Amino acid sequence: MSRVKRAVLARKHRKGIMKHAKGYRQARKSKFKAAKDALRHAWTYAYRDRKNKKRTFRNLWNLQINALARQNGITYSRLMEGLRKKSIELDRKVLSELANDYPEVFIKIVEEVRSTK
Questions:
Q1: CB-CB contact of 54 with 91 (8 Å)
Q2: Which of 116, 41, 51, 55 is nearest to 86 (CA)?
Q3: How far is CA 80 from CA 9, 41, 90, 92, 95, in A?
Q4: Is 65 exposed, middle or buried (0-12, 13-18, 19+ CB in 10 A)?
Q5: String of DSSP letters for 39-53
Q6: H-helix or E-strand spanning residue 88
Q7: Domains in the chain and their CATH numbers?
Q8: What's the pLDDT tens digit per position in 33-54?
Q9: Which of helix, strand or coil describes residue 72?
Q10: Disulfide engineering: 66 pairs with which of 37, 76, 102, 113, CB 3.0-4.6 Å?
Q11: C-alpha separations of 70 from 31, 78, 99 in Å
Q12: Is the pLDDT score of 117 beyond 90?
């Protein structure tokens, strides 16, 4: 059986890793072993934080909705309960944008919800 030499493939692999590690500090940008380890951590954090980003934005939207809702005399939980009872299907992202950009529309929604009682 013939012998397989991996020089070309190994160099290609190392070049790809080093290309991804461009811009890192100290040995992480120039030494393969350090770069490989740094990228393994970086990609792990990137995967994790793509999930956390969704959680963080939902939290921000809730805060923004709650702030304007309380200014208009209703709590966040009562607002969301009223929206469900009235079958107003607006998600938190849209409600947050309304609260920030079009507060008069948001206030009308709050008044509509308050009239359910």
A1: no
A2: 116
A3: 57, 39, 10, 9, 10
A4: buried
A5: HHHHHHHHHHHHHHH
A6: none
A7: 7-114 (1.10.1900.20)
A8: 999 999 999 999 999 999 999 9
A9: coil
A10: 76
A11: 55, 10, 12
A12: no
Phi, psi of 86 (to 5 degrees): -85, -5
Residues 34, 18: Cα–Cα separation, whole Å:
10
- pLDDT for 49-91, tens place per residue? 999 999 999 999 999 999 999 999 999 999 999 999 999 899 9
Nearest to residue 71, comparing CAs of 35, 29, 25, 107? 107
Q: Where are the alpha helices (DSSP H) in the chain?
A: 7-20, 32-71, 76-85, 92-101, 103-114
Token pair, residue 57, equals 């934005």
Q: Which residue has the tokens 């607002």?
A: 79
Residues in the chain: 117
Distance of CA 91 to the CA centre of its chain: 16
Average pLDDT, rounded, for the chain: 94
Q: For tokens 């529309």, what's the residue?
A: 105
